[in-house]
Amino acid sequence: MIDLHAITRTVRLPDDRMLHILRGVDLTVATGEHVAVVGRSGTGKSTLLNILGLLDAPSGGEYLIEGTPVSRLSNRARTVRRGRDFGFVFQQFNLLPGRSVVENVMAPLMYAKGRAFWRRRALASQMLDRVGLGDRLDSMPERLSGGEQQRIAIARALVRGPRVILADEPTGALDVQTGQTVMDLLDSVAAETGAALVTITHDLSVAARAQRVYRLADGVLVPLDLGSAGAEWVGDVPTAVGAGTRPRELAPPVPRELEPPAPTRARDGGEPR
Ligand SMILES: Nc1ncnc2c1ncn2[C@@H]1O[C@H](COP(=O)(O)OP(=O)(O)O)[C@@H](O)[C@H]1O
Ligand SMILES: [Mg+2]
Known about the structure:
The protein has helices at 45-52, 75-85, 101-106, 115-118, 120-130, 146-158, 176-193, 204-207, and strands at 2-12, 18-29, 34-38, 60-65, 68-69, 86-90, 164-168, 196-200, 212-217, 220-223, 231-234, 237-240.
């Protein structure tokens, strides 16, 4: 489904230094697979997810979606694929304020063609039924709890039937119990629809639900075994024990003000490939 080969992402800082966020990421995700990526904050997890979801372009390497090199797609084709093939779930839900629950879930269908466009309200309410919010269609999301808001976001991510669900810290703003419920839902809707699921998380119990777990550190993905060998936290970084790995030196923290404001803008002035 998805193949990343030696993906790099480098940005130019305001003082002209180059920041090498990703240094050669290899990753293959098959249809229906659940893959988790863990790593401390600032290691490039969101950058990687934004590249996977065609919200950002790599600086180097090759990204193939079902064999098609993304670098050869026109901007238009990339936008179409992003809307059609990917569903996004973010830590902060990213719901549209001032829009009702059902309007939020309908939003991705505004650009759909034909039947999906004309049936958008029915499709959105079906998805909301599926996530247990079929009786809250006309509520305002900001009145609902965090767990309910994340369920709206999941319904919105799924309403166009994506091939891949990309979840960036989906439980990060939720208490443990609510987070588990949200992950149960994500896992089951992914399984039902055969979509691949890529989850970024700080939480090992969330990561443990995936078939494969990677740790992003120093710009590369390292397989992480959460199995019988066990794993323990070093700071907020899980480290496989018994795999001969030692905690790496942590990269110096990057100042907060360098954090990207939004994933959709080209923030470095450089042309994405
Ligand atoms: N366009 C950009 N310009 C400058 N710095 C960036 C840009 N995008 C990301 N960064 C920096 O790269 C690092 C990785 O960011 P991010 O992918 O958001 O990490 P994570 O999601 O693992 O916390 C952070 O230190 C962030 O501030
Ligand atoms: Mg992040």
